[in-house]
Design brief:
28% of the residues lie in helices and 16% in strands. The two termini are 33 Å apart. Helix 2 packs across helix 3. It has a single domain, classed as Rossmann fold, CATH 3.40.50.1240. It is of the alpha/beta class and 200 residues long. The longest helix has 18 residues. It has 4 helices and 6 strands; from the N terminus they run βαβαβαββαβ. The protein has a 6-stranded mixed β-sheet with strand order 5-4-1-3-2-6, covered by helices on one side. About 12% of the residues have low confidence.
């Protein structure tokens, strides 16, 4: 059984763009989902049909980020932040989101490196090894934050429903009935928020 007193965060890497896999984004602007990426976004929406999201946070797709292969823990972007500073910024934001939405189900749509950094931090992986974690476009990774510490439940999943993370997949029948009543009073579904601290 999944912990019920923790915040569930769905880490989602954005879908394909025309430049995915063939070009580094760097500081370039104007990159948006292509036809394949839009189809992946539709499939992601279908995967989340059984999950009642509390909130959605997203990073702008137009990026400030570059691939760095060696020693990311000591690298600094010219005129910008280091990977260590990026990790501190992103993890502070993830913790703020978890505190803001205790017991919530939160979707965070961002870039592959940000998902890797979060997963590396939560699993104790050294920053210099974070690029060993494979995160495909339009993949979902699921973490729980709170309670007795973080738990990683799913990494780089690209298919199937997410029913076990739905409102009735984590509770006893009594808890499920109580939560169903509460959800029915909650009003409209979650609204998406662009969040600069989750940028790449």
């Amino acid at each position: 059984m999944l912990p019920v007193r923790m915040t569930t965060i769905f880490l989602i890497r954005h879908g394909l763009t025309a430049a995915t896999g063939s070009r580094l984004y760097g500081r370039a602007e104007g990159f948006h989902l292509d036809e394949r990426g839009r189809a992946q976004a539709d499939q992601l929406a279908a995967r989340f049909a059984s999950v009642r999201l509390t909130a959605v946070y997203s990073s702008p797709l137009e990026r400030f980020w570059r691939d760095v292969v060696r020693s990311p823990s000591t690298f600094r972007f010219p005129g910008g932040e280091s990977f260590a500073e990026a990790r501190a910024r992103v993890m502070a934001e993830v913790e703020r989101i978890a505190r803001r939405h205790r017991r919530g189900r939160i979707a965070v749509a961002t870039h592959g490196d940000i998902v890797r950094i979060v997963l590396a931090d939560l699993t104790g992986t050294p920053l210099d090894s974070f690029q060993r974690i494979v995160i495909d476009p339009a993949s979902v990774s699921v973490v729980h934050i709170g309670g007795d510490g973080p738990h990683v439940f799913l990494v780089n999943d690209t298919g199937g429903g997410l029913e076990r993370f739905g409102p009735w997949g984590t509770a006893t029948p009594r808890e499920a009935a109580t939560r169903a009543t509460r959800l029915s009073r909650r009003g409209p579904p979650a609204r998406r928020r662009d969040h600069p601290n989750l940028r790449g």
